[in-house]
Request: fold
Amino acid sequence: MSLYHFHLSDVSDFSDLDGTEFTSLAEAKQEALRYAGAVIKEADDRIWNSEWSMRVTDGGGATLLTLRVIAYDGAAVPIE
Reply:
């Protein structure tokens, strides 16, 4: 089992100091998607006109995954 940390920024900066153990990176990817969905659901209308990201790191602090969420209401905004 390996330790993975799920850090959020720009929604409500959160550093996952404890981490969670998973048997594989594939399991950590599934958890990142589940967790991002829960954050979006909890945010309700506050999610609009915002940008935030989740960074998944290993036990040593190396970034393994980054998930960016950009949500705008109205006209589409180009992504750079």
